[in-house]
Task: inverse folding
DNA sequence: TGTGAAAGTGAAAATCACTCTCAGCCCTTC
DNA sequence: GAAGGGCTGAGAGTGATTTTCACTTTCACA
């Protein structure tokens, strides 16, 4: 997909991208996770480089940042089709949910309020199947 | 609504509740804002009390916590009808948006995935009317 | 009213995620 | 191969939040 036209990146950024990609959609890595993995492959890489890389990759749309309330750190995942997230308030686990607000709804809201919507984030909270008992 | 049956709260928590209530729906206060206001009314109140109070009030459903990506601190607002939020990526302003995911959709998703949805958070991001030019 | 247990409290320190700065390095371009 | 710009790592700094602890208040019940 986007990889075919993506601009050349510094090799550390490539590394970060690979790590996030390798985690697969649905896995959610914190910057520290990513730093840990990156550090194994390229000891000496700095924390700031990881943050900078993630920021850049987000701008390019190659990875998505995910901010879940109640979780200290932001998490990152490979960017893919729009979807929502579900967080279990009991075990803290995060699941992907195949749901996106219909484009028509977005359009209507944007018109009503006079703003331009670039992204939407939907997070559900409750108890996952395993914690429901 | 919930106020009629709400359990008796320690007076500091009442104070915090009043402050958030007084801000009105659509205003978004950070813990520091709340602390500042609380401190005026009851000098000597501690920061930890404010955090503890907010946590409790959230649990009771009397106030809602709002975590907006890119904003350092969490913000709080009186709990009211379900609604979404819009954050302008240019000016950082936050607006309320009268939108909630239809209950039927929630039900379907919950059934599909086997979890119980207690709350949903919807945040849009883009440019507000004033920053659109 | 007296009493013990439980809950609440404030201050300060600790933690945690994240940002900033800066001097040096590397890679491209010419 | 020299110049310049982007990239880099380390470490200090920042700001939000949590934890801890000793003390106080509240409450149910005798």
Result:
């Amino acid at each position: 997909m986007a990889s075919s036209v993506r601009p050349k990146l510094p090799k550390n950024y490539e590394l970060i991208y690979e790590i996030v990609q390798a985690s697969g959609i649905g896995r959610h890595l914190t910057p520290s996770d990513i730093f840990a993995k990156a550090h194994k492959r390229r000891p000496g890489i700095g924390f700031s480089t990881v943050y900078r890389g993630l920021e850049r990759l987000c701008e390019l749309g190659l990875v998505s940042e995910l901010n879940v309330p109640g979780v200290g750190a932001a998490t990152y995942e490979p960017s893919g089709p729009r979807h929502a997230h579900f967080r279990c308030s009991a075990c803290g686990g995060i699941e992907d949910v195949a749901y996106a607000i219909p484009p028509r709804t977005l359009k209507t809201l944007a018109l009503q309020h006079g703003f331009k919507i670039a992204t939407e984030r939907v997070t559900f909270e409750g108890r996952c199947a395993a914690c429901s008992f």
Residues 10, 30-32, 47-48, 51, 72-74 of chain A lie near DNA strand C (CB under 10 Å from a C1').
